[in-house]
């Protein structure tokens, strides 16, 4: 079955894209579910910045999906899952479940998340690379997500669990504005 990936930096419309691919399934009576990592504490649904949302189930790892009787599975914030979870997605594809996943492709260093690398190696039918507006120069070609603390970009040594108290700020930036170590 098909794997579809929707990738890109912060604020590039990934969640809206994911939701819009599921909106029509609601009327077609096709069994589907959208999943989100438990680490994402933002809220209980996939939420896009233009106010559209769709109910999502929180899971700590993708093994929770394995038993589900679904035709289509959506996974939001896929980059927050473990790279081993990519093999669970492969099992789902073998079982005939279509998987649509969205998330960041690269981390704060501009390096691809291991789970994304594995998914790209599994022959996705379609990969959408989204762009955002660069928050530094305002050009609409941001491909990276720079992480700031106290207005300073963090180039190395980010904590593995980032506090959700707003002390870390994520900004989409273009190739020219992205800073590397
Ligand atoms: Zn820029």
Task: Write a concise keyword list for the protein shown above.
181 residues; Rossmann fold; three-stranded antiparallel beta sheet; 4 helices; 17% helix; globular
Describe the structure concisely.
The chain contains 4 helices and 11 strands. With 181 residues, the protein is an alpha/beta fold.
Q: Helix and strand layout, with pairings?
A:
Blueprint (H helix, E strand, L loop, with lengths): L2 E5 L6 H10 L1 H4 L3 E6 L7 E3 L5 E3 L1 E3 L12 E4 L9 H10 L3 E6 L10 H7 L5 E4 L14 E6 L2 E2 L14 E6 L8
Parallel strand pairs: 1-7, 1-8, 2-5, 2-6, 6-7
Antiparallel strand pairs: 3-4, 9-10, 9-11
Helix pairs in contact: 3-4
The site of zinc ion (ZN) has 8 residues, from loops.
Structure characterization notes:
The chain is of the alpha/beta class and 181 residues long. 17% of the residues lie in helices and 27% in strands. It is built from four helices and eleven strands, in the order βααβββββαβαββββ. It has helices at residues 14-23, 25-28, 85-94, 114-120; strands at residues 3-7, 32-37, 45-47, 53-55, 57-59, 72-75, 98-103, 126-129, 144-149, 152-153, 168-173. A six-stranded parallel sheet has the order 5-2-6-7-1-8, with helices on both faces. A three-stranded antiparallel sheet has the order 10-9-11, with no helix packed on it. A hairpin with a 5-residue loop joins strand 3 (45-47) and strand 4 (53-55). It starts with a strand and ends in an 8-residue tail after the last strand. The relative contact order is 0.21. The structure holds zinc ion. Zinc ion binds at residues 134, 136-137, 139, 173-174, 176-177.
């Amino acid at each position: 079955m098909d794997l579809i990936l929707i990738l890109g930096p912060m604020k590039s419309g990934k969640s809206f894209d994911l939701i819009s691919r599921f909106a029509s399934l609601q009327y077609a009576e096709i069994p589907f579910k959208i999943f989100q990592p438990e680490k994402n504490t933002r809220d209980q649904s996939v939420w896009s910045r233009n106010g559209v949302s769709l109910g999502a189930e929180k899971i700590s790892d993708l093994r929770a999906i394995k038993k589900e009787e679904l035709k289509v599975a959506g996974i939001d914030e896929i980059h927050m899952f473990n790279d081993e979870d990519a093999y669970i997605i492969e099992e789902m594809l073998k079982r005939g479940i279509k998987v649509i996943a969205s998330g960041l492709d690269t981390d704060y260093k501009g390096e691809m998340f291991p789970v994304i690398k594995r998914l790209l190696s599994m022959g996705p039918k379609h990969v959408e690379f989204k762009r955002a507006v660069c928050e530094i120069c305002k050009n609409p070609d941001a491909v990276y997500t720079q992480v700031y603390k106290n207005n300073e970009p963090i180039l190395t040594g980010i904590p593995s669990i980032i506090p959700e108290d707003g002390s870390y700020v994520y900004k989409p930036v273009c190739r020219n504005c992205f800073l590397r170590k």
